[in-house]
Amino acid sequence: MHGDVSNAWEHVNPASHPAHPIYAGPASPLERCRSRWFRASVGATINSMLIAFSVSPLGGGESVGDAVAEAIRVVRESGLPNETNAMFTLVEGEWDEVMAVVKRAVDVLAAQAPRVSLVLKADIRAGVTDAMTAKVAHIEARLAEQ
């Protein structure tokens, strides 16, 4: 069980560990996954993440394309695996690296506009790498079976 994190959330159920002090009250999934108990139970740390984020300047004029391009340039220059589509930019890496890239992208826009909108969705999972392509490959394989 220690090397397998595929069913890690089953082992973080507060009801299954009521005596453990970290589960004395409600905790968010992020707080649970960063706890020492959780890391010990799955044998890994939760630092790997895949995020989808969208950032846009507000109040700086009608066209946002040039500003958004500068934010995406920050992502691409980070060296982290990334992909941009019409709605979001995906970035994969360790927590601190990814969040630093998001902050730099926001900072680039904040220098150009009085307000910045940020939408972020994260998949945080221990020991997972190449999630950006592996998730899509898994779905494509399922579709090919049918």
UniProtKB/TrEMBL annotation:
Query: Thiamine-binding protein domain spans which residues?
Result: 52-139
Q: Identify the Pfam families for this entry.
A: Thiamine_BP
The record ties this protein, via InterPro entries, to: MTH1187/YkoF-like (IPR029756), Thiamine_BP (IPR002767), UPF0045_domain (IPR051614)
**Source organism's superkingdom?**
Bacteria
Provide a GO CC annotation, any one: cytosol
What is the similarity comment for this entry?
Belongs to the UPF0045 family.
What is the protein name for this chain?
Answer: Uncharacterized protein (TIGR00106 family)
Instruction: Name the species this protein comes from.
Output: Micromonospora pisi
